[in-house]
Amino acid sequence: MSKSHNEHLSAISFDNTAEAFLDKHREAIRQKAELMLQYSSADIARMSADDIQKLLFEFQVHQIELKMQNEELNRAHQELTASRDDYARLYDLSPVGYLSLDETGIIQNSNMAAAALLGCPREELINKRLGKFIHPSDQDNYYFFVHHLLAQKAGQATQDTSSDSPVHLECKHFQLYTNTAQPADNSKKLTVECHARVVCNSNNVLQICLTINNITERTQAQETIAYLNEKLEETVRRQTTELIVSNLSLMKKVEELRRSKHQLLEREAKLNSIFNASVEGIITINVSNIIVSANAAVEAIFGYQPEELVGCSITKLMPSSPKDISDCNSPHEEKMPGQIQEVDGLHKNGSVVPLDLSVAEFSIDNAHYFTHIVRDISLRKHREQQDKEHLDELAHVTRLGLMGEMASGIAHEVNQPLSAISSYTQVSLHLINTEPPDLVRLAEILHKTQQQALRAGRIIHRMREFVKSHSKHRSAADINSLIHDTVGLCIADLKQNGIRLAFELRHNLPPVYVDQIQIEQVIINLLRNSIDALKSLPAKQQRQISIQSQLTPNDSIQVRIKDNGPGLDKDQQQQVLTPFYTTKADGMGMGLSISRSLIEAHDGTLHFNSHPGKGTTFYFTIPIRRKSDEQ
Length: 631
Prior knowledge:
The protein is of the alpha+beta class. The protein folds into four domains: 3-215, PAS domain (Beta-Lactamase), CATH 3.30.450; 279-376, 2-Layer Sandwich (Beta-Lactamase); 377-471, no CATH class; 472-631, Histidine kinase-like ATPase, C-terminal domain (Heat Shock Protein 90, 2-Layer Sandwich), CATH 3.30.565.10. It has helices at 3-12, 14-36, 41-46, 49-93, 112-118, 122-125, 139-158, 216-246, 248-259, 261-277, 297-302, 306-309, 321-329, 378-405, 407-433, 439-467, 479-496, 516-535, 570-575, 591-601; strands at 97-101, 107-110, 167-177, 189-200, 206-214, 281-286, 291-294, 340-346, 352-364, 367-376, 475-477, 499-505, 512-514, 543-551, 556-563, 605-611, 615-623. The protein has a five-stranded antiparallel beta sheet with strand order 2-1-5-4-3, with helices on both faces. The protein has a five-stranded antiparallel beta sheet with strand order 7-6-10-9-8, sandwiched between helices. A hairpin with a 5-residue loop joins β4 (189-200) and β5. α15 (407-433) runs antiparallel to α16, α15 crosses α17 and α17 runs parallel beside α18. The chain starts with a helix and ends in an 8-residue tail after the last strand.
């Protein structure tokens, strides 16, 4: 039984104990007085003076003892009264609810905590049945509980044991209504824990002492935990079953591996052989960037023996790697496992080695490690450089071919300013020989002569810049300016074939960092394709090309060249971008292929869409680059 329950019972029986203590002392005094009064008057008459004097002395001594005992009783009574008041306060102010019931369940006494739990003033609780506060679902349990308690007390009496010995019944839970004055649906229900004890009071009347403690929140928490545990157990059982079923074959393999540990050792030896035979360098470092292991391939890549590198910093091999490593270490950076990036390695002889680097992350015994897998890409870089040079050569040859195809038109464009210069010169000579010479008119003619000469010079300069071989050079350029400059080289073909050119260029586009000659070559190739396609249209049908520029949502510049020609059939669409495919009788089939290679060299893409009878649109995109990205 709990300590609080014992305090409750002590407080309830305090008055009985105090009264019993005083009664015992009164009985002892009464017995002494009766003993002294046994002397009769006849006995006293026969007593001598000395005996009478002795008897009086004994009376005086007993009188003093009685006074002392009376004072002691008064003092004990005061102490007991004070203790009773203390117990009464403890009983009344205890956070645990205390109730005293008679044999029929009528409430005889209550403290404040019990009244608060039952939602009823203390004075109104007295003489009420506790059963009225019990929830209907717990009525049977409550009455069985009380009956069992009283039956135990009755059994104690029939066994000739002390009837004063209390009977205990521990820990029973009931649901209560907090206020019987309200309808049951509106009353708040509480779950309480009861401890009971049956005692006999001073009048030998049975009394049931109850402690009631509110455990509603604890019960709800236990129910919630039980529900969650049940769900968790169900989930665990289901997942365990699924795991057992799905991994049955794996468990068999594990069992086989356990039965043949020597095979694992052989496999480990094979893996070590593969590790050291790999052509890729495998370097493992800890979180402090210190190398803990390296395979034999690092010697071919960096010139160091593996044992020379153990204990050294990874920066000895890859000076630019610490930032990448810290990025891998950062929990805020998400990197795909096996993601490959290009870094520069440092050879033992001081030379720079271009590398492909991928990083794998793992933990062993709570220690974190990173494995760097490196591959020497010097040969690949050399081949890429050769491919770029070859592409530049092909592009140069293509530009020469384009100039050859456009030679007659460009010659016509150059011949116009030259003819104008000749005419203006003759007029100037005539004005000089006139008396008096017309200097104002002469100045106007000479100014026009200069403009025509500059025009011819610009055409020839643009031709020389376009066809000459040049080293790769990228710079900031305005895409709209490149479009206008490029169209200037094709204006003769457009006029000769009666083609109307429309510009739909967005203003204030960000600059692109490109090789301007190569991008001009792509635009010329696409324009020439559209011009050739429009030549097959009937003479009376309107021929039109539109050039558009715009910014795409993924921060790229897109250029679209659209014509209203006959379009491409399905077979042509499948082959038009492949090398050496051409629809022209004298074509090489390299224009579009080279154009796509040039755009891809700028990290862009070249596409087209076409519908037979409705024309074709070729379009390419170039990503916007910061100047720091320029190569």
